[in-house]
Amino acid sequence: MRSQIRLAEEVAAALDAGRPVVALESTIISHGFPYPANVECARESERVVREEGAVPATIAVIGGKLAVGLSDEEIERLGTSRETPKASRRDLPLLIARGSDGATTVAGTMAVAAMAGISVFATGGIGGVHRGAERSFDISADLEELARTSVAVVSAGAKSVLDLGLTLEYLETRGVPVLGYRTDTFPAFYTRDSGLPVDARLETPAEVAAVMAAKWSAGLAGGVVIANPIEPEHALDAAEIEKIITHALADAREQGIRGKQVTPFLLARVHELTGGASDSANKALVWSNARLAARIAAEFAKVARRSPATGRQS
Ligand code: PSU
Ligand code: MN
User: Which atom of ligand 1 is nearest to the CA of 86?
Assistant: First the structure.
């Protein structure tokens, strides 16, 4: 095990015994919600994973260590500090060398989860190809990570601050299966249906686990996207949310927001413009993803026990 990794005891024990473990990200804590909703969301995600019989492993950089499994105090610290930098793959070396904290994105969390031997990860929404990327080149490192790192990511799709059509094209090019969980179309985070088709519709966690096992045992390294639509009772009105997103994008353009600031700016602006009403939808979908991820992890653990060769090879 690399010395930069700090595995929580409970997580290490579960991994050694081949029991299900679910990775959770920390950008959602530092940049996804205001305090205290962020801390509440993180703790409840962990509780939901446990309720399903899996062990949660929230991932972050803590004092320069790649921490897999955080204490309550560490979650509180990430939730209250306004300065914790967003940590994607490229930021990890700097944070390690400086001994700093970092809030891992989907890309950063996947990279660390793979080092620790965790195969399933639950988040809210993945990053993707930004609108206007043909000029800005703004394509999230999450998509590159999905192309190279063998972790299954459960999300509610992606926010339509992105160009969802181009995001799916990119995932196709890079060989990443996009599996709809009980849906034929890719969900758009706050809403259930972007109108864009997924590769395949699967109905059970066991079917998802079978695809993961097939991919990795065939030597096809790389991630899998599991798209789990927000529950109907929590979904927001599509026209309303589109108006807000258009507004947020215009503000970003006017203020010249660039680079790694773009996504946090848009997330914060959407939050302000909905007057916080998007928070309960956001929390509900994260918990739903955590629950599904735990069920997939349980099924994948069964398959991996029967034939260890199905395990990840990243
Ligand atoms: N989209 C959301 N909520 C989030 C993010 C994206 O709806 O919290 C975060 C995730 O951590 C994701 C990151 O990995 O933003 C993507 O940032 P960028 O577009 O800069 O790659
Ligand atoms: Mn970007």
Answer: 11
